């Protein structure tokens, strides 16, 4: 088989991709990959008993995953890992366990069912759920914590990559705006022990951060809305994958509030993926994230470097440099624009 038949099969599998995504989430929710040690042999009956589910149904789910190289299933019901299933272990480097649980979570899943609403100026998530994405997360704390865990363990290793790519040595106080559970700050402070940090996010988000994850007191938390105000007088302000959640008008408002809070000499770091207008040159995952933003927020989106430069300029910033990292995200360093003096 070749040519058109190969393309037909490939496209058929893409069309039915939602089915395999849902099965992956099913076994991730059960922690199946964690129940099998990397070099060990288990069996479906043991896994089903440990998970509290029916063995025959679990076998069927495991078989379809094995057909895609995720786990290896013997005719006697034995189960061993493959390189792909090892990536579903929660302790794997750049683990996909957290993404498997997040991408097809209930809030996102139903919003994608209403994706066509975006083509008519509506917000798919709001059509599906009758509420905004962040209000939904506030009212469904279990799913919100899955979201927080995914942001902390995004498989592009963005937090370590950002910490390694930028010199934070001159920053005594760093504010992570919309910082979630604080993973970005923890990675940075691990490399720069003289620095302190503030995680600024919704009250329900920061309240869920365990005290033992606050870097021995070097990290404090502050609840609030970045549409009202942000903490003042820090040396460095971080916006890690925040602006892509918002349309230009809202993103500009966030940036202007950062500008108002910044003291002389402070800098802003916007950490985002930069989308290429030509999809043949950009990573497919960035265009998929762009669609996720459309499904969740309507007019929110990924942006090009030129679009970020324009957005920052309109909010009163100069983009001083763009720093590539070892992950797909880049660091856009910006400073408050100096107003020309009269005379």
UniProtKB/TrEMBL annotation:
SUPFAM superfamilies in alphabetical order: S-adenosyl-L-methionine-dependent methyltransferases, Winged helix' DNA-binding domain
InterPro entries: COMT-like, COMT_C, COMT_dimerisation, SAM-dependent_MTases_sf, WH-like_DNA-bd_sf, WH_DNA-bd_sf
Organism: Phyllobacterium zundukense
Biological processes annotated in GO: methylation
A Pfam family: Methyltransf_2
Active-site feature positions: 244 (proton acceptor)
GO terms assigned for molecular function: O-methyltransferase activity; protein dimerization activity
Domain spans labelled O-methyltransferase C-terminal: 114-317
Keywords: Methyltransferase, S-adenosyl-L-methionine, Transferase
Keyword Ligase: no
Domain O-methyltransferase dimerisation: 14-88
Record protein name field: Methyltransferase
Gene3D superfamilies referenced in this protein's UniProt entry, alphabetically: Vaccinia Virus protein VP39, Winged helix-like DNA-binding domain superfamily/Winged helix DNA-binding domain
Keyword S-adenosyl-L-methionine set for record: yes
């Amino acid at each position: 088989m070749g040519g058109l038949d190969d393309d037909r099969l490939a496209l058929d599998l893409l069309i039915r991709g939602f089915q395999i995504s849902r099965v992956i989430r099913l076994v991730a929710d059960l922690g199946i990959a964690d129940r099998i040690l990397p070099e060990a042999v288990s069996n479906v009956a043991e896994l089903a008993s440990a998970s509290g589910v029916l063995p025959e149904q679990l076998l069927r789910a495991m078989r379809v995953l094995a057909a895609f190289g995720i786990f290896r299933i013997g005719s006697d019901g034995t189960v061993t890992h493959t390189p792909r299933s090892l990536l579903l272990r929660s302790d794997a480097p750049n683990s996909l366990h957290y993404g498997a649980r997040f991408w097809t979570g209930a809030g996102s899943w139903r919003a994608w069912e209403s994706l066509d609403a975006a083509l008519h100026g509506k917000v798919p998530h709001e059509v599906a759920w009758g509420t905004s994405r962040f209000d939904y997360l506030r009212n469904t704390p279990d799913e919100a914590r899955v979201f927080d865990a995914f942001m902390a363990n995004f498989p592009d290793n963005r937090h370590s990559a950002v910490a390694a790519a930028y010199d934070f040595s001159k920053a005594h106080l760093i504010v992570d705006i919309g910082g979630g559970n604080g993973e970005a700050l923890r990675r940075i402070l691990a490399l720069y022990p003289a620095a302190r940090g503030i995680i600024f996010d919704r009250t329900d988000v920061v309240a869920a951060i365990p005290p033992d994850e606050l870097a021995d007191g070097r990290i404090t938390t502050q609840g609030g809305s970045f549409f009202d105000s942000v903490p003042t007088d820090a040396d460095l302000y971080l916006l890690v994958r925040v602006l892509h959640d918002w349309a230009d008008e809202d993103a500009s408002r966030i940036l202007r509030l950062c500008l108002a809070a910044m003291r002389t000499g402070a800098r802003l770091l916007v950490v985002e993926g930069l989308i290429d207008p030509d999809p043949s040159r950009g990573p497919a995952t960035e265009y998929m994230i762009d669609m996720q933003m459309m499904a969740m927020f309507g007019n929110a989106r990924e942006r090009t470097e030129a679009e970020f430069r324009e957005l920052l300029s309109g909010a009163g910033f100069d983009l001083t440099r763009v720093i590539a990292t070892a992950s797909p995200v880049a660091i856009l360093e910006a400073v408050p624009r100096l107003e020309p003096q009269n005379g």
